[in-house]
Design goal:
By secondary structure, the protein is mainly beta. The chain has a single domain, classed as Immunoglobulin-like, CATH 2.60.40. It contains one helix and 13 strands; from the N terminus they run H-E-E-E-E-E-E-E-E-E-E-E-E-E. Strands 1, 2, 3, 4, 5, 9 and 10 form a seven-stranded antiparallel β-sheet that branches. Strands 6, 7, 8, 11, 12 and 13 form a six-stranded antiparallel β-sheet that branches. A hairpin with a 2-residue loop joins strand 11 and strand 12. The longest helix is centred in the first third of the chain and has 22 residues. It is elongated. It starts with a helix and ends with a strand.
Length: 153
Amino acid sequence: MRLRQLGKKAAVAATAASAAVLAAGPATAAPNWQAWVRPDDSVCGNTEHHVVSANVLFQTCMVVNFSNRTAQPVLVVRNNASVSITMERGYTHSNWGFSDTYCNEKVLPSGQVLACFGETTSYLDGENISWGGFTYNGKSDATLHCIQYLVRP
């Protein structure tokens, strides 16, 4: 009987400890859109218009830091329309980090430019590719690839 009580207490303690560990885990909120000022150490793919409007332009860029051998994919969106738009499900992807980054839904005012920054990770020796996209008015569209050949010094 005493062993059964100890077993129950151990199970309760293990469950409580597991719940505490899970509750203390990192938040997984999506990144926020940020202002874009193109840095000198970046390369960008072609600028395209979103399938919904010729006044909503977007492209994928890659910010490269040669000193620490990292790169970061960035989706850049410019709203040349006369009204604000709501960007949904914005994302970036890269072949060097093999990770997707999803940005929160965001209203982009007329005449503004915002960027969804992906994860900064070590780039590949050779061909590095990034791309991104977002949904606007219920229609998804993606950029062409931004390609940069990098060689580690």
